[in-house]
Every structure is written in structure tokens, then in C-alpha cells.
């Protein structure tokens, strides 16, 4: 996957690098930023209370501005994989929905986002739902979301 057109590639070319050298430097910059970001996340999510299969995709979804995961369950191979989340600004929702379209993510087959409310008409909650046992697909989607929404410093 080429990083041309990304902020990482722009930063690499700002140093004077061109072509393959710029591409390699862009990947290095992206990896350094990812490591710094993951280090800053340490201790933020309650990993003790989460299914390990949900951690990567919850972290990725939480990278999207104004989107926050609320609850999750991997389904334990018997039930659908589910991530409940809230959206403070609906303009941000396409940053997630884009990757749940099989046109952009082949591993998204069988995944969907639904919206729910309760009898008191509370603010809607969204649910990302995937097939039972779709752990590898969840990880692949997390990588795509993370790559697309990685914060710039």
C-alpha cells in the first residue's frame, strides 16, 4: 500500500526525500507515530473487562473524532461480534461506515452498523455487528480504520 498523498508522505518529502526513499521514510514515520500513540493509550481502555478479540477494533474506532466505544462482546464464536458506540457528531460516522462497505474492505462481508434507542427516546447508540467468530476480520477492519484515521501530531 502506497503512502503517497498522506501526511506521512508529505512529511517525508519535506525532508527532501523522493521516490522510494520518501516512501520508506513515510512508513518509518507512520510506525513511529503509531508506537507513540499506542504507548499513550496504555491503561486507557479497561482491558481487564474486555474480550481480547475486541481490543484492536475498539481502539481503532476510538481514533475517529467524536466517536466513542461504549461496550463490546466478541460473541465467543457462538453469537455475533458486537461493538456499541456513540457518535457526538454525525459528520464523523462516514469515517467508520466507509470501511464497513465490502467495496473498500473485503473482510467487511457480513458486517453492519445499526442504530438503537430505548423506550425513553434517549440519544441513539450505534452497534457495529459482525458474524460469529469473525476475529481476523475485526482485526483487519481495525487496521484499515487505524490507517485511515491515524491522528497527526
Can you walk through the features of this model?
There is one protein chain. The chain is of the alpha+beta class. It folds into two domains: 7-41; 47-149, tRNA wybutosine-synthesizing-like (SSo0622-like fold). It has five helices and four strands, in the order H-H-H-E-E-H-E-E-H. It has helices at 7-14, 19-41, 52-63, 94-97, 135-149; strands spanning 67-73, 81-87, 112-116, 125-130. It has a four-stranded antiparallel β-sheet with strand order 1-2-4-3, covered by helices on one side. A hairpin with a 7-residue loop joins strand 1 and strand 2 (81-87). Helix 1 crosses helix 2 and helix 3 packs parallel to helix 5. The two termini are 22 Å apart.
Brief characterization of the structure:
This protein is α+β, with helices and mostly antiparallel strands. It has helices at 7-14, 19-41, 52-63, 94-97, 135-149; strands at residues 67-73, 81-87, 112-116, 125-130.
Shape: elongated
CATH architecture of the largest domain: 2-Layer Sandwich
As for the number of domains, it is 2
Helicity level: 40-55%
The tally of helices reads: 5
What is the CATH class of the largest domain? Answer: Alpha Beta
